[in-house]
Amino acid sequence: MTHMAIDFGDVEAFIARAIRSRSTADLPLLGHGEISVVLAWPADEPVAAVKRVPPFRDREAAQKYVDVCAEFFDTLRNAEVAAWPTMVHIHVRDDDRAVVYHQQPIADLAQLGSNVMRAAPLADSHPLLDAIIEAAARVCNPTLGFDCQLANWLWDGNTATQLDFTSPFALTVDRDDLRYDAHAFLQEYPLVIRPYLKKEFTSLIRRFTKAEGALTDMVANMMKEGLDEWVEPAINAINLQLGSNVTRVKVQRMYDHDRKLMPSVLKLKKAQRWWLTHTGRRYEQLLPVRTTYHE
Ligand SMILES: Nc1ncnc2c1ncn2[C@@H]1O[C@H](COP(=O)(O)OP(=O)(O)OP(=O)(O)O)[C@@H](O)[C@H]1O
Ligand SMILES: [Mg+2]
């Protein structure tokens, strides 16, 4: 039941139709982050959450990405950080490009970290924050970033369980590239700006390789989520547990940077979609109506 067999050819056909109509209106959406759109499947009687990673050039490139995902699951297991059960599938299309799907049980969104904190009475601390801080301290390392934002966690009152695995922040030893072909993600952008974006994104990912950076990002996201009142307790908990010096000013600076970057990135994607579809080519990404930074 947890992982019913899904025909990803059907999912892909369904999504292809939505991409062509440029609308997510007919899709049973469970949510979206900056990278992927999360669907309930099958649409009429959902039993699973599916997340689509844009197509890789071929099966080999997809396999490399899947291997990195598998390694990340191992890392979490060794660090004793809980992971939401996830199956990663490669679907090779008729045009030989390979789409990767992550399949998970549908989570109870009342348990989503951001919703939990929104519902919790304000206090000096919260066990979910402590659990995330501990997880970040165990997982982050110079070649592995960990996206710790609250919307990537489920909290059942005891355990913080990570649920976002679509873009593992696994860097090469020299830390200037991802360990899988980032083309799948970069193809959404106009060709001329890809080298610039690749640099920008790689430097963004390096932020997550230190617990302090990953957690400052978590707090910056709390500002976005309307969780301002928890900013102070979160900063205190981080500094107490890590011996770090996170401040409201640093958090604000990061938030301002991201707030400028992400909407312009979505505009770039939309421009690229216009360009490709007006030159008779296929656009591959299902875009959210807006970024999670509401303008
Ligand atoms: N298994 C699930 N069941 C129900 N809802 C889910 C599930 N997984 C994700 N979601 C919803 O979709 C949102 C985005 O999911 P996720 O973080 O995996 O996507 P993402 O695009 O990879 O995000 P990011 O921008 O952080 O990389 C979650 O915050 C949550 O609201
Ligand atoms: Mg996410």
Topology:
Elements: H1 8-21, E1 29-32, E2 37-41, E3 48-56, H2 59-78, E4 82-83, E5 87-92, E6 98-105, H3 113-119, H4 127-139, E7 144-145, E8 153-155, E9 160-162, E10 169-170, H5 183-186, H6 194-206, H7 211-224, H8 231-242, H9 248-277
Parallel strand pairs: 4-9
Antiparallel strand pairs: 1-2, 2-3, 3-6, 5-6, 7-10, 8-9
Helix pairs in contact: 4-7, 4-8, 7-8, 7-9
The structure holds adenosine-5'-triphosphate (ATP) and magnesium ion.
Adenosine-5'-triphosphate (ATP) is lined by residues 30-36, 38, 49, 51, 104, 106-107, 109, 112, 147, 151-152, 163-164, 166-167.
Strand content: 5-15%
Name the helicity range: 40-55%
Question: Could you name the ranges where pLDDT drops below 50 across 5 or more consecutive residues?
Answer: none
Radius of gyration: 19 Å
Helical run tally: 9
Distance between the termini: 40 Å
| Oligomer description | single chain
Number of strands: 10
Largest pleated sheet: 5 strands, antiparallel
Secondary structure class reads: alpha+beta
| Shape, principal axes of CA atoms | globular
Ligands, deduplicated = adenosine-5'-triphosphate, magnesium ion
- Written as H for each helix and E for each strand, in order along the chain, the element string is HEEEHEEEHHEEEEHHHHH
Count of the domains:
1
pLDDT averaged over residues? 89
- The spatial strand order of the largest sheet comes to 1-2-3-6-5
